Amino acid sequence: MIVQVAIPSPLYALFDYELISDIDPIGCRVKVSFGRQNLVGVVLKVIEQSEYKKLKNAELLDTTPIFTEDLLKLGQWIAEYYHAPIGLVFRMMLPQKLRKSELYERSSETYLTLSDDFPIWLEENKNKKARVMLVEQLAEHVPIERSQFCELFGNFKAHEKALMADGVVFHVEQYPKVWDASVQHFPILPYVLNDEQQKAVDAITLERFSVSLLEGVTGSGKTAVYLELVKRVLGKGQQVLILVPEIGLTPQFIERVKNILNIPFVVVHSEVNEHQKLQAWEAAKYHTVPLVIGTRSALFTPFDRLGMIIIDEEHDGSYRQRDTVRYSAHDAAIQRAHLLKIPLILGSATPILETLHNVERERYQLLSLNERAKGQIPNWQIIDMNESMIMDGISIELLNAIEATIERKEQVIIYINRRGYSPVLMCEVCGWVPECKACEYRLTVYRKSHSLRCHHCGHSEILVNKCPSCNNALLKMHGQGTERIEKALQDAFPKANVIRFDRDQLKNKTAFENAVKDVIVGNVDIIIGTQMIAKGHDFDKVTLVGMVDIDGILYSSDFRAEEKLAQTLMQVSGRSGRDVSHGQVVIQTHFPEHPLFTELPQQGYAKFARNLLEQRQHFEFPPYEYQALFQVEGRNEQETLKAFEGLMQSLDCRDFLVGITPIYPNSLSKRQNYYRFYVVLQSKSRKALHRLVHYLMQSAANHLPSQIRHFCEIDPWDFD
Ligand code: ADP
Ligand code: ZN
Ligand code: ZN
């Protein structure tokens, strides 16, 4: 037969191959030779005839399809909607282990069973108490997964060999059983759902497509609603996928799922190893677990019977991928729910304006949780930095508040979204500023490690103590990052335990989780953190949140700046006073009159965001119009710009429905030795926009010199 294959190359087409197969190969992987390489592709179509005469042979790697039908469609949707090379999309959807050209066979588990005449063995071995006990237990459980039995009876391993030698215990290799909903008894909840929670649960119709926004401040009980919904779906013998932000997957959350549901589930995130990822993939595909919790790429888990998708913290930026295939897992998940005709829940205290717009248009259902289940909404105190006394970037008011809080033995969070000691080093005499050569961007000072680092490419060099340009030693550091705030607070409160939460300090999940533990048990008084601290941790003893140096984003030209800062302000301030009645938030700014500081605290996010939405409509920005970004990058600045200009001029199908901005350099105009330029395309009509993007991508592929690269991003979120 002739098959059309998606091949992992930056090309947009499918490729025809000859295949010998006695099964329907759609959704199976094949090994193909492509150019001079051997690659693993995915069969998407079987066709009668090819335009090409001489077809090469493909070799089948699977005996049953690897891709479920909905994922096959989803992959094609992503390729089309995001204008991404289809082979790269399908490669991205596979677990690493299945990207290799190896035959795949489902892995089996070792089970334990007993010989038929085990009662005789029991008779004869009465004196071996421990072994008798194990065999008696086994008799009640067999066949049981060996690993599960070992978990129940830690001493089994010590006796296993002897029992097997006696011929009473056997290993059998078999596939794990499909999870059986009918044997499930959910534990009784430690609380009853309040009216709003119950209403939200009841409003979701299963087995039908719908999108619902569960809007509620931190601590309003969204997770409780998710878990109740999970129970309902599981009760129907279906499975659930919960997507969470990259850092939002806390041990606390996992612990709650365990306690409230008491079911087997798998967790998938960037630090789970490839073997575990494949295990999770199989567990979902063969329905041996009913629940998968994971970050962005978990969206591509195959399920036997997926019945619901939940996206927690739907506003989170980590649902967007910004390399290779530029897509939003948030939007792709909605597409998947649509394909499967199942409900999807978006949960957030600070939903994005796109989501709120869809609620207004009645495309999404709104479920609000207004009562905070526990604790109270904190008070905001705005500090005018033009007026205040300031020490190392911290106002006297904030210092006093910190002092009072730690005296009460409560905890403090100081949020500053900038790593390192100081963002700018400058020669006081000649104005020299150290820059990264590859990115033409100033280097951040790290004092502890005595280095200068680039936050865009990771380049690092030794911190100089003399100006290399004029040889003076008058180098001054301007501004502060987490490291500087940490030092300042350590100096100000020498007895306090200060901990820093940022990517430099907590390099992996384990370090992060240990730090969280330290906070929870109360070993820490002051937590200094970046964005990392803004995500769903239940730090009960935190009663003060200070926000330092947040004005930066207000200077940016991003039309979403206010929305993003409002989300951050709400998320971070939500960390305060989760469990007690007095939460306090201190915000330092040079713009105390800005609506973000005067209106947001009074109105709350829900109202504030709806006002922003009106402004968007007035200024004709998304979500009222649609955008795409088209970017061109090259090593030679002039050549790149010229090529880009040439491309835009040659665009002869200009569509009056689509507006195009002039060519701009990116705000970080050079990155890793590439000069970057972009245009934004905008239209009221999605169709017209996509038509033009398609045309532009084709012209770019045909006309741009090969050393100049290009890409597009649909519904772009950041313009850096
Ligand atoms: P969110 O996910 O919106 O931040 P959670 O579901 O984590 O909120 O709930 C916050 C806290 O309130 C948790 O400690 C949870 O156990 C508790 N909680 C949730 N719902 C209820 C309820 N109906 N009655 C009592 N406590 C509740
Ligand atoms: Zn100098
Ligand atoms: Zn750099």
TrEMBL record:
UniProt cross-references to InterPro entries, sorted A to Z: DEAD/DEAH_box_helicase_dom, Helicase_ATP-bd, Helicase_C-like, P-loop_NTPase, PriA, PriA_3primeBD, PriA_3primeBD_sf, PriA_C
UniProt remark on cofactor binding: Binds 2 zinc ions per subunit.
Annotated positions binding Zn(2+) 1: 427, 430, 467, 470
Binding site for Zn(2+) 2: 436, 439, 454, 457
Keyword Metal-binding among UniProt keywords: yes
Highest taxon listed in the record's lineage: Bacteria
E.C. code: 5.6.2.4
Reactions listed under catalytic activity: ATP + H2O = ADP + phosphate + H(+); Couples ATP hydrolysis with the unwinding of duplex DNA by translocating in the 3'-5' direction
Cofactor: Zn(2+)
Free-text function comment from the UniProt entry: Initiates the restart of stalled replication forks, which reloads the replicative helicase on sites other than the origin of replication. Recognizes and binds to abandoned replication forks and remodels them to uncover a helicase loading site. Promotes assembly of the primosome at these replication forks.
Family according to the record: Belongs to the helicase family. PriA subfamily.
Assembly notes: Component of the replication restart primosome.
Protein name: Replication restart protein PriA
Organism of this sequence: Wohlfahrtiimonas larvae
Gene from which this protein is expressed: priA
